[in-house]
User: Which sequence fits this backbone?
């Protein structure tokens, strides 16, 4: 039934395609690109505060943002956000996925507030449908969730379990994980700075978005008023909560038929909903591909996945190499410090062996170093000890916070290596 309804709306859109006004349509498309550019600028400012000592390039963040928005209109469940996170990480040296994910949450704060205002406006004038009536709407997303309370409870439970599983996977490095998450919320520590560099820019973006919808209404022959613009914004705000279909397709069309009823025929409203959705999808996808090709030299989504896998393998190899360098340096340090690690009592000249073995004394030992010590000296001479890692200023506060844990772990490893060496000798 839902598929048939969508096909009917699509056929209505094509039948009315000749009546679409080209100039308002082009103006609306240009304004929508400007709106996405404002959002990309706000996202870049959030990242700049998270990495204050790095130059966060706006062109690359803009390209990542528009490419992700375009893919979100053809991939369900906001799959394009994975592309945004990956491209943004590769554009900022020393960045991490938890920090960028937290920046996405900071960006969503304004959307939640502005979308809530638009929905409250629709409720205040008495045109917004009650949630129980969503079952009768021709939308798979809405009817799937609200038609069965047990299904909605299952979805909520699945989300909670997914969050717990994610937390368990990072439990071994939970302090580092949460420290990087807090880094993504750095812009919220200065309220005035946040309002100026994020909230204000996003507010301008929403004004431009409303203007784009105003011209889209004109292009498709519907009454272009401020009230109708708010109703369109409220429908898009609800669609953002149900991202099961690409770009919330179906939710917007179903709600617009109810919100704009009485101002045009049902077929005209449905054709407008489908036409606006198709226009935004084609526009954002085209601009996204241009951004991928011109800024990141990427030609397909498969290439993005291949690069992501290669980048992940390189990170793992770098971590293993760093760990191996730390082990070599720690072994060399423990060889010099001995069991006390800092000036304990000197070893006795004699030691009592187990029963059945002769007693060794310092006088019986040869004056020179033992063969094992000579071999260790030769090995030690060939070791190229890594120099101290260059300081990473953006994460200096993170290193200070984790320094006690790392020091304790290093001492335990040093003692274990020293004991193994004593047993071997």
Assistant:
């Amino acid at each position: 039934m839902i598929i048939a309804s969508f096909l009917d709306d699509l056929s209505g859109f094509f039948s009315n395609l000749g009546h679409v006004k080209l100039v308002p349509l082009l103006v609306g498309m240009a304004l929508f690109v400007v709106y996405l550019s404002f959002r990309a600028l706000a996202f870049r400012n959030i990242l700049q505060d998270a990495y204050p000592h790095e130059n966060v390039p706006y062109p690359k963040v803009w390209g990542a943002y528009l490419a992700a928005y375009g893919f979100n209109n053809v991939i369900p469940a906001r799959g394009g956000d994975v592309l945004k996170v990956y491209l943004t990480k590769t554009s900022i040296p020393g960045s991490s996925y938890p920090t960028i994910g937290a920046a996405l949450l900071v960006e969503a704060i304004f959307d939640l507030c502005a979308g809530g205002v638009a929905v409250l406006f629709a409720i205040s004038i008495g045109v917004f449908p009650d949630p129980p009536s969503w079952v009768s709407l021709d939308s798979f997303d809405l009817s799937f969730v609200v038609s069965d309370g047990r299904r909605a409870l299952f979805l909520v439970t699945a989300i909670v379990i997914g969050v717990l599983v994610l937390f368990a996977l990072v439990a071994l490095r939970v302090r580092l994980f949460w420290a990087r998450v807090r880094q993504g919320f750095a812009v919220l520590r200065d309220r005035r700075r946040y309002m100026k560099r994020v909230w204000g820019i996003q507010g301008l973006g929403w004004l431009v978005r409303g203007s784009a919808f105003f011209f889209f209404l004109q292009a498709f022959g519907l009454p272009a008023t401020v009230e109708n613009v708010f109703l369109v914004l409220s429908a898009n705000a609800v669609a953002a909560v149900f991202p099961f279909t690409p770009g919330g397709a179906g939710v917007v069309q179903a709600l617009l038929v109810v919100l704009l009823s009485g101002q045009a025929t049902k077929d005209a409203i449905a054709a407008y909903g489908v036409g606006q959705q198709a226009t935004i999808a084609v526009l954002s996808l085209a601009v996204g591909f241009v951004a991928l090709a011109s800024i990141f030299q990427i030609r397909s989504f498969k290439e993005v996945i291949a690069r992501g896998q290669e980048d992940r393998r390189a990170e793992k190899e770098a971590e293993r190499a760093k760990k191996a360098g730390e082990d070599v340096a720690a072994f060399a340090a423990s060889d010099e410090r001995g069991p006390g690690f800092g000036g304990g009592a000197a070893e006795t000249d004699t030691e009592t062996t187990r029963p059945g073995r002769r007693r060794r004394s310092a006088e019986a030992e040869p004056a020179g170093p033992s063969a094992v010590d000579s071999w260790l000296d030769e090995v030690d001479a060939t070791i190229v000890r890594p120099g101290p890692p260059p300081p990473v200023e953006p994460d200096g506060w993170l290193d200070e916070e984790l320094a006690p844990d790392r020091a304790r772990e290093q001492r335990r490893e040093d003692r274990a290596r020293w004991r193994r060496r004593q047993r071997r000798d």
About this structure: The radius of gyration is 31 Å. Residues 2-299 form one domain. The chain has two domains: 2-299, 301-338+366-425.
